[in-house]
Amino acid sequence: MNIHASILGLSLAAGLLAGAYAEPARAATSQNVGNHGSACRNYNASEALDIDYLTSGARNINASARTVICPVARHPVTGPAQGLYIDGSNTSGAAVYCSAYAYEFNGTYLSSASTTLPGYVSLPTVSYWGHVSVLCTLPGSGGAVVYGITAVDN
Q1: Angle (nearest 5°) at CA 127 between 105 and 74
Q2: What value, to the nearest 5°, has the Cα angle with vertex 143 and ends 142 and 147?
Q3: Which end of the chain is more exposed for a tag (fewer CB within 10 A), N or C?
Q4: What's the CA gap between 116 and 96, in Å, rounded?
Q5: Could you tell me which residues come within 8 angstroms of residue 93 by beta carbon, excluding any fewer than 6 positions away?
């Protein structure tokens, strides 16, 4: 019985030591994360009242074009790239341009890529601990709506 207690004690100690020195857990599977368009905000402070928030997303109600910035919640990726699908509607007939930007956790620029709404873009370089945002220039008079952004785990 003493031998069993000793073995159990050594096993517990080994498990505790291994847990204390373990690397942070990283995802082994792909997980896409969706972000609602109403999380987008006016890019310029003076244009705060020009952006209209809907149950379906965000749009510009001013007669002139306005830019919105959208935060992108994402599952930290283990690869160097990050795909984004920017979903929305465009009834204005003009091209609606969106640009995605990736930054390191300390604010260091990593990469950017652009597309039209709706569209898919792939950031060539992202960081496990970094941040991603999207800027879209919306036409006036509600001519386009950003429904949301999905971070696609490559």
Answers
A1: 90
A2: 80
A3: N
A4: 5
A5: 143
Which pLDDT score is estimated for 119?
95
Low-confidence ranges of the chain (pLDDT < 50): 5, 7-28
Distance between CA atoms of residues 124 and 154, nearest Å: 11
Nearest to 90 by CA among 115, 123, 127, 72: 115
pLDDT of residue 2: 55
The alpha carbon of residue 68 and the mean position of all alpha carbons in its chain are separated, in whole angstroms, by: 15
Q: Which of helix, strand or coil describes residue 128? A: coil
Q: Is 21 exposed, middle or buried (0-12, 13-18, 19+ CB in 10 A)?
A: exposed
Q: Tell me phi and psi for residue 112, to 5 degrees.
A: -150, 160
